[in-house]
Every structure is written in structure tokens, then in C-alpha cells.
Amino acid sequence: MTFIDWLVLVLLIGFITAVALSTKKYMQSVADFLSASRCAGKYLLGVADGMSGLGAISIVAVFEMTYKAGFTASWWKLMLLPIGVIIASTGWVQYRFRQTRAMTLAQFFEIRYNRSFRVYAGIVGYASGLINFALFPAVGGRFFQYYCGFPQWPVTVLGTEIDLTYALIMMGLLGISIWFTFMGGQIAVMVTDFIQGMFVNIVFVLLGIYMLFFLFDWDTVIAAAIQYAPSDASLINPAKTSGTDNFGPDYFLISAFSSFYCYMAWQGSQGYFSSARSPHDARMGRVIGQLRNITQTLPLALLPVCAFAFLHHPDWSTQAQAAHDTLAGIDSEQIRSQLTVTVASAHFLPPGIMGLFAAVMLAAFISTHDTYLHSWGSIFIQDVIMPLRQTFVGDKVMSPQNHVLLLKASIFGVCLFIFFFSLLFGQQQDILMFFALTGTIYLGWAGSAIIGGLYWKRASSAGAWSASVVGVLLAIAGWYVTYEWASSQQLIVQLFPADWAAQMSKWEEFPINAQHLFFWTMLATLIIFVVVSLFSRETFDMDQLLHRGDYAVEEDGTAMESEEEKDPNRALSIFKMGPEFARDDKLLFIGSYAYIFLFFAVFLVGTVYMLSTDVSDQAWGGFWWYFCVIILLMTTAVTAVVLVGGIRNLKELYEMLQNVKRNAHDDGTVVGSRSLVDVQEADEASSEGASGRSSH
User: Fold this and answer.
1) Is CB count within 10 Å lower at the N or C end of the chain?
2) Rounded to the nearest 10 degrees, how much is the dihedral formed by the CA atoms of 105, 277, 370, 261?
3) Of 153, 174, 150, 59, whose CA–CA distance to 420 is shortest?
């Protein structure tokens, strides 16, 4: 790293710090801290929420996958496009969740089911998310240590040897992230994530241009991918991926199903789910977020393929030797796999470009960590502590100052946990497999409770409880056999028929990977939820839940939903552009569908063609060149559009926060089957109505 590279990092930190400070004066209530008082516009949501999901760990995980699967991963990802765009454009789950006016998912669970289920879901979601999140600082810390070339500094603390350099890097990065969170809650998190998201978009355009036209010769990169990749794990030919470790077509098929089934279940970005100023903005934010995904396609696919060529092609053997030596010094196979692209990139990216990519990773680290710290810390207080307090103390509202202080204390506790977990935990799986395994504890069953609760009046608390308990047990069992396979084999030999047990004993590791375990858990819990709910014979007032009809909240624009419910063709109405669609909404909507139809058509035609005709590796190499160029052009266009719209939304956010009417009862408390703020506002309206009639 040169002076210019470090300067880029310092300037980025300084700017986003100043932006975070500007939000402090707007943080005046619990609703501000948790949901930015529901004042966020669609562009702001789309960019900021998208950036929070593009963490340093996500980038490294994609690097790890793409180094093994190459461009073929990009090909099989195309099958996810219809689901992603349809989810976004229809407002699947998110629109109705915003209608509930809940600030956390578990708050919705209490409204829809009961308080005990809220607490249970809060505990399980918190535990699952905390363990999943706990690996994030480790991956980010290792990236910066090896990318920047910081030396190891081994020390022994209480009989445990740790790398002090690695610990200090994580401490510094987490310190910045938690400071942003404390400064302005969801307001600061969202605004800084937007700034970082736009910076990353612009850098990705520059990186795409550099890597395509200036870094390496394309023909040489493709030649390396053809010559040195395994014959059954091609980096460029999707028809030759049978040997791709963990990341074949089945991985993406399961991802397609889970994208629909588990949408919004993961609460790492819970603040964004409730921050939209209307249900329509929530839907359009997702549409914009889907389009923004285009911007990260090119660099995340191209950089690992270039790294593979750099490490394998003889033209770069001299420059690559230092990278090989560094990787050889990493004892853990999993960590070596995780850092391969990082170490290679540090040896072939030039000054300036190297600093820009380091800044991208810094922004990615901070944006995800401040969002996740905010989410998991808030969930523990909102969905475990506060409902339990309500049970024993009653419905008396805690002062906003004390409530926010409690939230900050919980966030600090989460920060400490993930720091020490990352410092001491030994990673044993690919990052994405670890995500799938830890996420299954919660995601394996949450989808059924969410979808059923929002769309089915017969969904019952008994069904939700049954699905959740079975899902947790299956996930824990899967976790155990994955990490304790040797002892599990002994148990299998004792419990199952001899022939089957003998076959199982031959496997060196559990034959079902984390992604497959995730799928079977989702399927089992969905069936259980539906069957038990049908037997329960419960019904729920969906108009009350979704603030429709007599329960409508005018500023949310929710009254029209009740009319849509009367439309015999309402199943198709979700695809229509109603009066709430502004001109730019319509253009974004049309653009989303044009994007999906173009690339999904390419995927379908290409898949059929390659299954019926032997397409040469050289032909695939040419295809990927044009694919990358088209993606680069689209990235540039999307970046320009969201930049203009986002700046406008940012100005509107500050204006709305300046004037918004804050309500101390809007703190996530639920009374009966309604949020306390809804009960209080209904009582005030009733009192005003009675006073008016009396005066008359």
C-alpha cells in the first residue's frame, strides 16, 4: 500500500464520519433509533439496504466461491433473476410487513400470533444471527491484514496464543462501526450506508473498466481458466461443473427457493424493513435494490478469475511467487481458501487502484457491521427484554432516553461477543456453507410463519410453534453431525441397519452439506405449519393487521389495499402500476422487467443450447467478454440514476425528520393484538370524535 492508497482510506473515513455527526441532532426517539421514524425514500432505501448486505465478508465469500466456480457461478445465478425481480416488483412480504407498522419481525409475530412466540422467535433469531454474525469481523480483519501486508504479532494471553495485529485491526474496524450506530441509530446507519454505497458503485465502474481493458490480456485470462481448471469444474463452461465443490447448480436452485420462502426473514437488516415512509416506497426500494445488484456483478466475478489466472499462468509466475509463498504460510486450509483472491489481488493491483479497492472493502465492512450491530442488539431488547418486562411490569412505557440507552448497551454486548468469537473461533467450512448452517436454525422455519401470517387468515399460533420447534431441532441436529461426524458415525452404527450404517461409516464427512440441510428443513417446516394450522381452525382479522379499511393510516397510503382486496383479479393487480406510481417508478418497474427478460432469456436459450450442443471453451470465453461489457454499461447507467434519486431522498429525509411528529408510545410495545401506538392513536381519535359531537 502506497501513500496515495492510504490517503483514499483516510478521506473516506473522514467524510462518512462527518456525515454520521450530522445525523445526531435528529435522533430524538425510539422510533428514530430503530426505524428512522419511517422517513426513508425509495432510492435511499435501495442503495443503503443493498450496501448493508454487501459486507466485506460477503465479498470475500463470493471471491471464495468464484475462485472455485469462475464465471459459471454467474451463469447459474441467472436462474435467480425472475424470483428476485418478481419479489421486488410485487412487494412480496415487504409491502405487507410495512403495512403492519411493526419495527421488528418478532413484533409482527406478537401481533399476529402471541407474545410468547415473539419472545421465542426473538431468542432463536438472536442466537442464530449472533453466531452467524460472529464470523464477520474475522473475515474482514484477515482481509485487511493480508491485503495491506501487516505483519503477524503473536502473543499469549491467559494461555491462548493470539495475533495482536489481527486483534487490533478488528478492534479498530468495530470501533468505527459501533460509533456510527451510537451516533444516530438507524438514521446514521442508513445515511452513511447510502454514502458508502454510492462510493462503491462509482469505484466498481472504475474497477470494471480497468480490469476489462487494462489489467490483463483477456485471451490469456481465458487460456489460464481453460488450461488449469479441473475438467469437471470449469471456470467458464457451465456444462462442466459436476465437480465444483459445494457450488454447483443445486446450490443456486436452493437459493432460488429460499429467496422466495425466506424473504425478509433474516433480521440483519431489520431497521430497513420498517424505515420506508410508505409501503409503496418499501416496494420500490426493493426494486431499486434489485437493479443495484447489477453494479456488483462484474468486479466480484472478474477479480477472482483474474486472480486464478495470475496464480496459475506461467506469464505471471515470477510476480505470483510472492503470493504463493504468503498462501503457503497459512496453516488452515479454510482460511487459505478464503484469502486466496485477497493475497493475489494485493500482488497484481497497481497503486491507486489498490487503495480504491481497500476503500471499497472498508466501506463494505462498516456498512454491514453498523447495520448488523444495530439489528441484533435491537432485536434482543425489543423482542426479548421488553416483552418480558411488559409481562411482569405491565404496559407502562419506558422513557425514550432509558430505552435507547438499553438498546446501546445491548449493541455494545453484541460487539464484544463477535470480537472475541472471531478472535478465538476456528473456521471449518466455506463462508457460504457456514452462513447456511447457522442461518438454518432460524431461517429453516421463519419463512412459513412470516408468509402464513401476512397472507393467510387461517395461519395459527399452533402452526407457527410446531414449525419453529421442528426447524430448530433439525438445524441443531444438522449442526452436530456436521461438526461431530466421527461421533455421529458411531451413533448411526448403533441405531440403524447394518448395511446402511456400514455405507455411512465410509464417508469421511457428513454427505449432506449445509445448503441441502437448509432446503430439507424449510420443506419439512412448511408442511408442518400448513397441516397444523388447518387443524387449528383459527382465523385472524387481516384488515386490522394490515391497517386496511377502518384501520387505514392515511399517511402510509394503506387505504387502497382494501379496495384491491375486492378486485376479483387482485392476484394480477400486484403487477400493475397504480396511481401511487410516479413517472420514475414506472421507468424503474419497466427497467426491472426488461432486465430480467433479457438475461433470463439468455440463460434459458443458452442452457438448452449447451445441453444439446457441445459448446467449446473458446466460444464461452468470447461470450463472457461481451457479457462483462454489457454489465459494465448497465452498471454505469444504474449508478447515475440512483445517485441523482438518492441525493434527492437524502434531502427529503432531513426535512421530514425536522418536522415529523414523534410519539413516545411508538416503541414496539404490543397490547393484545395491536401495537400500543395504534391503540393510543385510536383512543385519541375516539376522544376527539366524542368531544366534537358533545360540542356540536
Assistant:
1) C
2) 40
3) 174
- Quick one: which H or E segment has residue 675? strand 674-675
248 and 242 Cβ atoms separated by less than 8 Å: yes
Together in a domain, 16 and 128: yes
Q: Both 380 and 401 in a single domain?
A: yes
Alpha carbons 429 and 406: distance in angstroms, whole number: 35
Q: Alpha-carbon distance 369 to 363, whole Å?
A: 10
Check whether residue 360 and residue 450 sit in a common domain: no
Burial zone of 626 (CB within 10 Å; 0-12 exposed, 13-18 middle, 19+ buried): exposed
Q: Within 425-460, where are the H helices?
A: 431-455
Q: Do you know the residue count of the chain?
A: 696
Residue 434 covered by a domain? no
Q: Are 460 and 120 contacting, i.e. CB atoms less than 8 angstroms apart? A: no
Counting the structural domains of the chain, the total is: 3
Could you tell me the residue range of the domain that residue 503 belongs to? Answer: 441-456+458-539
Beta strand 670-671 pairing with 160-163: unpaired
Same-domain pairing of 375 and 324 = yes
Counting Cβ atoms within 10 Å, is residue 487 exposed (0-12), middle (13-18) or buried (19+)?
exposed
98 and 63 fall within a common domain:
yes
Q: Give the Cα separation of 173 and 143 in Å (integer).
A: 12
Q: What is the pLDDT of residues 3-24, one digit of tens each?
A: 999 999 999 999 999 999 989 8
The residue written with cell numbers 473456521 in the block is 427
Residue 592 CA neighbour count, 13 Å, CB half: 28
Q: Does residue 693 sit in the same domain as residue 653?
A: no
Residue 641 lies in a domain: yes
| 428 pLDDT above the threshold of 60 | no
Question: How far is residue 610 CA from its own chain's centroid?
Answer: 33
Calpha distance 322→343 (Å, rounded): 9
- Whether 596 shows a pLDDT value over 90: the answer reads no
Closest-CA residue to 332 (of 253, 404, 426): 426
Supply the pLDDT for residue 366: 92
Distances (CA, A) of 552 to 100, 453, 561, 670: 10, 19, 9, 18
Average pLDDT over residues 193-210: 92
Q: Which amino acid is at 172?
A: G
Residue among 45, 15, 364, 374 nearest 181 (CA): 374
One-character DSSP codes across 615-638: --HHHHHHHHHHHHHHHHHHHHHH
The model's pLDDT over 362-404, given as tens digits with 9 standing for 90+, comes to: 999 998 899 889 888 988 998 899 899 888 887 777 888 899 9
- Compute the distance between CA of residue 468 and CA of residue 124 in angstroms, rounded to an integer: 9
Final residue in a domain of this structure, among 515, 539, 563: 539
In angstroms, the CA 88 to CA 564 distance is: 19
DSSP-assigned states of every residue in 398-412: PPHHHHHHHHHHHHH
CB atoms within 10 A of CB 79: 17
Distance CA 375, CA 323 (A): 38
Say if 561 falls within a structural domain: no
Q: Assign 3-state DSSP to the chain and report helix, strand, coil percentages, each to 5.
A: 80, 0, 20
C-alpha 524/C-alpha 445 separation (Å) is 9
**C-alpha–C-alpha distance, residues 113 and 459, integer Å:** 9
Residues whose CB is less than 8 angstroms from the CB of residue 209 and which lie 6 or more positions away in sequence, other chains included: 632
**Does 216 fall in a domain?**
yes
- For helices 42-53 and 617-659, the axis angle rounded to 10 degrees is 130
**How far is Cα 112 from Cα 545, in angstroms, rounded to an integer?**
7
β-strand 670-671 against 154-157: which pairing, if any? unpaired
Mean of the per-residue pLDDT values of the chain: 83
Q: Of 524, 539, 554, which residue is a domain's last? A: 539
Same domain, 633 and 675: no
Query: Residue 425 gets which letter from DSSP?
Result: -
| 495 and 364 share one domain | no
> In this structure, what CATH number is given to the domain that contains residue 124?
1.20.1730
